[in-house]
Design goal:
Layout: H1 2-10, E1 15-20, E2 27-32, E3 40-41, E4 44-47, H2 52-69, E5 74-81, H3 89-106, E6 108-109, H4 118-128, H5 136-141, H6 147-161, H7 180-200, E7 208-212, H8 216-227, E8 231-236, E9 240-248, H9 250-258, E10 271-272, H10 273-279, E11 287-290, H11 299-307, E12 312-314, H12 330-336, E13 340-342, H13 344-347, H14 350-358, H15 367-388, H16 395-404
Parallel strand pairs: 3-5, 3-6, 4-5, 7-8, 7-11, 11-12, 12-13
Antiparallel strand pairs: 1-2, 2-5, 8-9, 9-10
Helix pairs in contact: 1-16, 2-14, 3-4, 7-8, 7-15, 8-9, 14-15, 15-16
Length: 408
């Protein structure tokens, strides 16, 4: 596995597009790891301090993810080094998408990612430049769709991704309407945990979980786990968190989801970050969902969680461990050799799978069909890993081996 990984990591990306904004300090990159199958896909993220290496590592992550989610295309990623809270964000995105439009027309498909919203930013801006849908490049480059096929596939994408959820099984209660894009990644991360206990054995109900990050992924995963009877005992977010050793009730988890301010945890009894960061890693729990930014989880934190009884990590964030390696460094390996680690490219493939499903001929654009398809895809990937090695340890490394054998 390590040899395959090194080979894949060290391979130069096929295309690197570099951009400097002429009206602000923003700079950006599209990294296309390969045009496998004639196209590549990966979302657009924005954060201050982002660099080309981060974009390159995420493009490679996407390529591995497509071996699970489909379609059989190359991995790509767009990254913009700019403060997403800057009032000029919208103008920067307008100029960025104008610059990358030829790629998006022909062979690159994108979507939302960290600090860039699929429904409210990516789709309206790219539509304004004449793109039918941000995935149009994949429909053209990979599927070589005829005009009627293209209209059908893009129609399904337009309808499905921004579909307002009606089925109460897939959305928290409340006034606000949520879309497939809002809930699907967190749902997949929670389903990965459910499938893990189903395949490797054990009762999910009554297990305790700690959640890192309270954006769409972490908050949605917590809601879906709570529905399964999991007790959420701790949440740590950027500015603080909550500890409830007996577990939050389902209604309390849903309320925290609905009360978010953007991606921020809002609660009356919030514990300041320094204090919760000192305590939460020693909290007895069996499930950990890292769903904040990449490369945050340290060796010390993992060791403390394992000592407190941790059984499984379902990676909501891409590359959650604080290793310098592109995919999997010493911290990830240490955890994988002691407990069960469900890697990001399986656990958080929900949105990539939705795109693939909606581009297929048999897509049914209903809440249940879309969510069931994501669950089935994740379950099948974990069964494949189990069949290769039924041990509860080294799940991530065995999953990588299966994926990389298709790419290297």
């Amino acid at each position: 596995m390590q040899e395959l990984l090194k080979k894949f990591e060290n391979k130069q990306p096929e295309i690197v597009f570099e951009w400097s904004d002429n009206e602000s300090e923003a700079e950006g990159w599209v990294v296309i790891n390969s045009l496998r199958g004639g196209a590549a896909g990966g979302g657009t993220r924005m954060r201050k301090g982002l660099d080309k290496r981060e974009v390159e590592s995420l493009a490679k992550t996407m390529e591995v993810k497509f071996t699970v989610s489909g379609p059989a295309i190359g991995g790509a990623k767009s990254g913009i080094n700019f403060d997403p809270n800057d009032p000029r964000k919208g103008e920067v995105l307008q100029r960025w998408y104008k610059a990358v439009m030829p790629l998006l027309k022909n062979y690159y498909g994108t979507g939302g990612d960290l600090n860039v919203d699929e429904i409210h930013e990516v789709i309206p801006i790219t539509e304004g430049y004449g793109l039918w849908h941000p995935q149009e490049g994949i429909v053209n480059g990979h599927f070589h769709a005829t005009e009627p096929e293209k209209i059908k596939k893009i129609g399904q994408l337009r309808q499905g991704v921004s579909k307002v959820l009606e089925d109460p099984h897939f959305t928290p209660n409340g006034e606000k309407k949520y879309t497939v894009a809002d809930m699907i990644t967190g749902y997949g991360v929670a389903e990965a945990v459910r499938h893990y206990y189903k395949i490797w054995g054990g009762d999910l109900k009554g297990k305790k979980a700690v959640i890192q990050g309270w954006g769409n992924v972490g908050a949605a995963a917590a809601c879906f786990l709570a529905v399964e009877g999991v007790k959420v005992v701790g949440i740590i977010d950027r500015e603080g968190g909550i500890i409830r050793e007996e577990g939050l009730s389902l209604d309390e988890v849903r309320e925290l989801f609905l009360n978010r301010n953007g991606n921020k945890l809002v609660a009356p009894d919030i514990i300041p970050f320094e204090e919760i960061n000192g305590k939460i890693w020693d909290l007895p729990s069996e499930i950990f969902i890292p769903a904040a930014a990449s490369r945050l989880v340290t060796q010390d934190q993992v060791e403390r969680m394992v000592n407190a009884g941790l059984e499984v990590i379902s990676c909501g964030a891409n590359v959650p461990f604080a290793d310098s390696e592109i995919f999997f460094g010493p911290i990830g390996v240490w955890a994988d050799e002691r407990i069960s680690v469900i890697p990001d490219f399986i656990a958080n493939c929900g949105m990539a799978r939705v795109f693939a499903y909606l581009m297929s001929k048999k897509a049914e654009v209903t809440d249940k069909a879309i969510f069931d398809d994501v669950s089935k895809t994740i379950g099948n990937a974990l069964k494949k890993t189990y069949n290769d090695n039924p041990n509860k340890k080294n799940i991530a490394q065995n999953s990588f081996k299966i994926a990389l054998a298709q790419l290297v």
